[in-house]
Amino acid sequence: MESRSRCQWFLNALFFSILGPAIVPGLPSVCAQGKAEWQGRWEKVLAEAKKDGKVVLHGPPGEFIRNSLVQGFKKAFPEISVEYAAARGSELAAKIQTERTAGLYSTDLILQGTSTALLYFKPMGALDPIKPALILPEVADPKNWADNRLEFADAEEKVNLVFATIVKTPLVYDSKQVSRQEVDELHELLNPKWKGKVVINDPIPSGSGNVTFRFIWEALGPEKGADFYRKIRSQAGGVDRDERRQIEWIAKGKYAILLGPGDRIVPELQQRGLNFGILDEFKDYGSLKTAGPSSLMLFNKAPHPNAATVFVNWLLSKNGQIAWSQSAGYVSRRVDVPADHLPSYALPRPASKYWVSYLEKAIQRTAEEEKLLTELFGR
Q1: How far apart (Å, rounded) are the C-alpha atoms in residues 23 and 113?
Q2: pTM above 0.70, yes or no
Q3: pLDDT at residue 256 above 60?
Q4: 51-164+292-332: which CATH topology?
């Protein structure tokens, strides 16, 4: 009994200091089993992670996200620092490809979109399987996740873990120039009165523009999709890659409609007082679910593999997911993480239909679509 009591005290102290009180009530059953296999492995990885000293993480831009992840992890693991760098997915892929070609391996893990993972890093052969890194029971147990499963974007369910999603906003508009009823069906965007008043988030690179155009192609089919691509391109007064600037243009009235706005930029700029209308779905085709940058990749030949494993387990814990959801604005797939801080348009509605945009089968463009996009939007 004395040995079991010491075990109880040790585990309570360990988990309370690392992950908070959320899982402490379940500890007695663990103690009853003696020293569990996962615990021994966790202690070994944690000791080696402290020797690593840091983890190199590439994630999405935004000081709120950076600070939330860096400070949240540092609070839980003060002996391991986070070296955080932000970049757009396609730009990051080019950088890492150049480094790896030169035999340089500087990155441990990445939080980016699934298109970045599956169009760039998976073909590069740069990714390690994720499941072996999931050590803590509250992270590895499927019952803690929506649909009682961990969700992977890659077809093999190995290298690209999706841990949060939202309903994507397909367009925003200037409320002074446009009423919602004028643009709540997809074909209405082709009305001649909008010619020159539409700005398009470039669909060529990975990102929100890419995902929005993939949704349109899948919704309409190849023939109607190709026709829409050509017509919306002729409607456009501008094509741009700066997602913040695009919404600012709408708020200032430079353009009336933005097709494919950035997922995280919409609520951020709305909270800062910019005034623009938000369309969360088309009446005729619904909308789509996106993971945005809420997908995880572990790099092989990582310079700090144990620190990366510790970070993954923290990020996917309840506390880590609360930090992510509140800073990035996505709905965690963990069932114990609240979403009441998110705007209503980001949450799925039971009566609506959504295309799941982040799976590998959804990301791959056909040769016909690729050729047409290059013809219309290539630089």
Answers
A1: 30
A2: yes
A3: yes
A4: D-Maltodextrin-Binding Protein; domain 2 (3.40.190)
